[in-house]
Every structure is written in structure tokens, then in C-alpha cells.
Amino acid sequence: MPTLNLFTNFPVDAVVAADILKDASKAVSKILGKSESYVMILLNGSTPIVFAGTEEPAAYGELISIGGLGPSVNGKLSSTIAEIIQTKLHIDSSRFYIKFSDVQASFFGYNGSTF
């Protein structure tokens, strides 16, 4: 159930979006050690964002997971996702924040119930 929600003020075309979604899905699955069949990635382009007082290209992400998160894993996720954003969208990693949230299974709905 890991879910990564990415926002950027950069316009994202369909081809680039597909690459980002696939790359991020594989990375999140691998780093967290969870089946990719439960990973969800959302990408929101052209979102108004001001970072450090400017509207230069920037991005923000939120990753929610039931377990698996922690200081070393979060560092790997942060660097890997920042690299994807930098490579695919040319957004410098210094203009990217990511928030990690480890949630209880009962706080995440799926298939008409909770995990």
C-alpha cells in the first residue's frame, strides 16, 4: 500500500509522466521491500508552487506506507526519488521536499475495508 504523491510546478507531458510513474513505482517497491502490486504513484504537474520565494521548477512529495519506513530507508527513498525528478524533469534536488508517513494498517482503506 505504499503511496507516493508527487507535485511539481513543471508541466509534465504524458511520455515523461509514464516514465516517472514506472520508475518511481519500481524504486518504492524495491527500497521498501514491498510488492509492486500494492504500490500507487500519483503525479500532479503544473501545480502552483513557490519554493524559496521563487516559482522556478520545484517539487514536493508525500510517501505513505504501512511499515517499512525509517531513517536509512527514508534517506534511500529521498535520494532515489529526487534523482528521478532531477533526471526526468530537470528539477534540482535542492528544490524538492518529501514527507514520509508511517501509518497503522487500520488507517488505510483498501478493497472496501482496511489493511
Automatic annotation (TrEMBL):
Principal localisation: secreted
One MF term in the entry's GO annotations: dopachrome isomerase activity
Enzyme Commission number: 5.3.2.1, 5.3.3.12
Reaction catalysed by this enzyme: L-dopachrome = 5,6-dihydroxyindole-2-carboxylate; 3-phenylpyruvate = enol-phenylpyruvate
Keywords: Cytokine, Isomerase, Secreted
InterPro entries given in the database record: Macrophage_inhib_fac, Tautomerase/MIF_sf
Gene3D superfamilies recorded: Macrophage Migration Inhibitory Factor
Localisation per UniProt entry: Secreted
Cellular component, GO annotation: extracellular space
Family of this protein: Belongs to the MIF family.
Protein name: L-dopachrome isomerase
Gene encoding the protein: LOC111471895
